[in-house]
Amino acid sequence: MWLFEVQGKNTKGGDPKTRDAWMPEDVADDIHKYSRERGLDASTPWVDASKSSVRRWVKEAADKVAERKDAPRWREVSSHDLRRSWATYHLVERQVDVRTMMSVGGWSDYSAIEPYLAEPTETRIGEAMRV
User: Fold this and answer.
1) Is the overall model pTM greater than 0.70, yes or no?
2) Which SUPFAM superfamilies match (predicted)?
């Protein structure tokens, strides 16, 4: 795994917050190759785009999926939905512990990540408590 910095929204207001984020080694290899090919140094952003551009890209991609799959609900997907989906997948499906996800995802307190946690079912409680 590789550590890199991401500029993102400061949920407490004010200037954007720089967060540490992690990426798998194969993704890091692709990023390093991309950087070498374009002569980017460590301080140069990989993607130099405004928030509105990123939101537009997500919207365009979601619209294409909606058309291809004939699933109009995809038209409602936002960049925030991608972050929420990523967190929910790791917390619920992969059962990554909350503190790790807070660190990796840049959440500063439990109340910010708590909505992404699944309600425990009797089956999950039984499995967790099995000795």
Assistant:
1) no
2) DNA breaking-rejoining enzymes
